[in-house]
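Standup notes
- DV: blocked on the single-chain target, sequence here:
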Amino acid sequence: MGKSKGLQPVIVALAFIIATILAALPAFRPDDVPVFLLMVGRFHPLVLHFPIVLVVLALVAELVRWKGWLKQADAIMVVLLSAAAVTTLISVMAGFLLFASGEYAGLLMDRHFLAGAITGAAVFLALGFFLLFRKNPRFYPLYLACLITGNAAMAWTGHLGGSITHGEGYLTEYLPFLVKGSPSDAPRSEEEMLVFEDMIAPVLDAKCASCHNAERAKGRFRTTSLNELMAGGESGKSGIVAGDTSQSEVYQRVILPPGHSDRMPPEGKTPMTADEIALLAHWIQKGADPALRIAEVRQDGAIGSVVESLLPDLARYRRKAAVAKLRAEELRKELEVLATKLDVIVEPDTMADGDTYLLAMKFPPAPFTNDQFRELAPYSDVFSRASLVSSGIDDAGLYYISRMTNLRILYLQKTKVDGSGLIHLQKLPNLEVLNLSFTKVDDKAALDLLNFPALKTVYLHGTNTSPEVVEALRKYKPRLDIRMEEGPYL
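- DV (later): unblocked, structure below
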């Protein structure tokens, strides 16, 4: 017992020291971390569940202890808080090593790590103040405040972690529907449901509408209404021909083998299932009648079992569509506010296949430097095209552009870029077009273009690159189209 009492001040001091270190950890950015430690960081997702359970359990146990329902309460609380503190420390340090690897970055990641560090600091403070409380009751409010703070910070850390893994707002995306009602609710009873409107249209919306909608009509073809489906696109062929699947371009495209250049949807997107294709074919053969009811189809041989198998999926498609629509509307409003604040153009990118945006300067351009660009960081993944012509952005600002992982087209002509920061843009996996005309890019910087993974076209008119280096680039990388012209601005 004497040894235990003698150790207690040491444990308290150690708990406070570790809490201080954890609180300060987000400000520390190591430049070089040994490979062994980077490997340890990969275990973060495996160990984080232990502190989550223990921190919550400690709060529950405190409530039970406070009510007097727990025997040997103090001893149990010491064990729980100690276990929670140790596992939290392991999880936070593993997360720090994962963070230090550079594999994860961005505002969400910064917030997630900060929240995790606060959680760890709060748990260690709770342990320290509990040990002090056992000797002096006046420390109880501080102990309880730290325990509650630890649980709250842990919940916020989990929310941010889910957002990093599954997208921002992942944990709360269904919250609005608690008031509005389930987004998967059918628009009418099954007896009244229509084959096209209630079964085929949701499938087309889930599988085709990202490329063929009102704003992004790829191939001048839209799937957003029956009339547009019938009309077809720039191929001149009708999308749907009533009673004839062989002449219905939509059907012919979805039955092409995987890997075919004309198959829809294209590779990388989720294709229609065999049952969905079978229902589409049946509906076309029945005259593509918009008034055809599901109840009628159910009585029609084998297609009836297809309908039965599809009904559960339809609820999922409707739910996904409703959530996507709500999030898209919220994002649009946020970007409108930001565009007004920064005095720039932000609008849907009509040249892209997905729901991404264009960022462009107004003419004449408003002052736009690295500081303004930093404000766009939380939305970096929604931009697929950026025209920063005549802006004040320089090579340091290219670091922020490197976070735009969906960026395909980037215009930087007449900016302060000299090429020293082009190395940042090598991280962009989808960048295909880069305009550097009328910048101070020189031969040394131009050689960095060889390391761009997806680059197809680059404009170097009015730069400090020599004809010899341009020819060497063309020879070494013949698939890279180097154009000595001013190039487009938007």
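- Follow-up: The beta strands are 344-348, 357-361, 383-387, 409-411, 433-435, 457-459, 481-483.
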